[in-house]
Amino acid sequence: MSAAALTYSRLDDGGFEAIAAAHPDVTIPLEQTPDWIEFERALGRTALGIWAYSDAGGAVIATASFVLVKRRLRESVVVVNGPVWFGDRSPAAERVLMETVRRQFREDATVAPLYVRMQVATPQFPATGPIEHGWYEREIVVDLTMSEAELLKSFRPNARNSIRRAQRDGVEIRHIPREEWTAVFTTELFPIMRETAERDGFQSFDSSYYETLLEVLGDRLRMLVAYRDGTPLSWLITTEYRGYSVYYFAGSTHEARRVFAPYLLLWEAFRALKASGNTACGLTGIVSENYPGLANVTTFKRNFSRNVVVVPTTYDIPLNRTGYAVLAALLRARRSVSPIARSVRQRASSVTKGLRNRRGPAVGS
Q1: Residue 224 CB contacts under 8 Å (≥ 6 apart), including other chains
Q2: For the chain, which domains are there?
Q3: Is the pTM of this model over 0.85?
């Protein structure tokens, strides 16, 4: 197979749906659908559409939805949680796809990205890097095809005990009606998200991001909230597409953990998703070599399934290898300096405070 063997064409919604319908057994991430393109555009981002890649016989090998990302010092094209493969994902086929994508954006006069970012199962030329990792590499997937009793029995004892303890402690799970989503999220749930982000050391989106998600993708979502004595303790938002659901966003308070609310909340979500015809639920990322910071959530997620799925790692495909190498070196230098700079600032601040304490308060303080 040569690079010239693949042709590419932009799909309209009908063309995408026809390919999806012809491959009912392929799991298509929501991020690789026309629905997600609408969401990206509502956020003010530049979505470049979904493209199909076909072999010499006209068979679709893969599709990819591209978003143009502009950041300081660089412009890139990103495939979020993709591409989607409909043909054999052999190392040779994957290289042909990467070469085709590289040619596609080198020849596209409407954009000028430095590199394309996408998931690659077999690291090889022209993939390199990445400059920064863009998607998790391992996740827990829960099988929802079994009966509720079998599903509950499949959990680890700690999860089953925690569900019962939450029920005894008076935790109540509410399915929030769609017309109330924005008001409930803004007033009750976003403060919990900020608390979660501060406690677990990650940067959350601002409230408008989640509000746009709820408004644009409402047909694909559900929102559940755990309350105790009328106070919201924990919440989650799930996505659903073609029978595959994802535990997408969640937040919890310190009190929620004390009364095990997240366990009962996720159990009720599984029940609702199963009743709606979903056959599996992905719990998103868990700890891996490139994502050691996911260790805390991994402990929680492993309680619900032993099924660990490996997700292809995100790599970069440089369109200008010299420019990409210069940028990569610059970013590495910046990251190596940052910890030193932080240390210097912290020591300077400590010295300043010490001098201030010895000299007494400044005039007018």
Answers
A1: 173, 174, 175, 176, 235, 236, 238, 265, 268, 269, 272
A2: 3-135+314-333 (3.40.630.30), 138-310 (3.40.630.30)
A3: yes
